[in-house]
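Reopening this ticket.

The earlier resolution said the output was attached, but the attachment link was broken on my side. Pasting everything inline this time so it's all in one place.
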Amino acid sequence: MPALPPKGASRLRGTPESQPSALATPLSVLGFSSAAQTAAAKKPAPRVAKPVVDCAVYVDGVRQPGRPSPAEAITQVREAQPQSCDERPLSRFVWVGLFEPDEEQMRAVGAVFGLHELMMEDAVHAHQRPKLEQYDDMFELVLKTVKYVAHESISQAKEIVESGEIILFVGRDFIVTVRHGGHGELAGVRKHLEEQSAKLAIGPLVVMHSIADHIVDGYMQVTEAVELDIDAMEESIFTPGAGTEIELIYLLKREVMEMKRAVNPLSLALSRLAHPDPTLTIAVPKEVRRYFRDVLDHHTVVAEQVSSFDEVLSSLVQAALGKISVQQNTDMRQITAWAAIFAVSTLVAGIYGMNFDNMPELHWHYGYFIALGVMAGISLSLFIGFRRSKWL
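Inline output:
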């Protein structure tokens, strides 16, 4: 298999759903033979944390005891003894959870499950748009996670929405989840599903639904929190006398655009899973499609909210610019009024400051005081006039 491109820089970092405690080379973790481990040992590599957060075999929706490696787990599923004709076929599949694997670790997992090299490249580099793709008899579903960054005031916030990514690889007897980012943990989803063995017995597609449902529910929580910030900003904009910080509106708009990029593209993928689609190589059972239709309904509500946020913020930008323009006009009127008031004094002083001997009233004994009085009187009259016209 050709080597994957070097891993790009990513800001989606965090802690796994349950932090592994031991360190090991990827091949030994994933259950490869001693010969493979010996070959790998010839090339020294830095020790890294285990990418496998959890790995389990499920038979009829019941988790089997032990913590096998991915290689051991898929072997256990595929080499199970055939059942008698009188017995009901048992549902068997493997669920492997990975957290931010590097290129070598992902290649090892991909070799176990037969993943395409493009699937592994997506898993390593992460920055993908939400999508559903097929590779022979496998699905790749990319989901973006979002988290609301709590803050006391929006004026103190540098980031409002933090994004991550979860990539699902689904086959007929396995599902591999690859998580990037410091949120969107799946331990709770796994625990909840393990308490519903009848539902989990349907297979890996139920796990895919539960993860998608969990992420879309997270979208709804984030939109509720962002809506409060937008309401507070809207109130500030339309409060008379309040200052206008248009940079905060741009911050909100940037974060809403990030949510829009995470939420809107997922609609097509959910639609294909929620409705009969003959192009899918893995048939989605009718019961699972019902679950996906529910997720699609929630997603539609979220997508409409995010679009409305974008429209509201665009309106707030226009309102803020209009408010700034009105304030600038007010300031210009005040500057013009004061300039007119001082222009009178400047005019009188300029005329009587000319060096001519035969100017009228130049040698009056009280001419200086009369000139000051005229300047003060005219200036006061102008001030009163401007105040009445609300220029001052």
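Reporter confirms the inline version is readable. The two ends are 78 Å apart (CA to CA). Confidence is low (pLDDT under 50) at residues 1-48.
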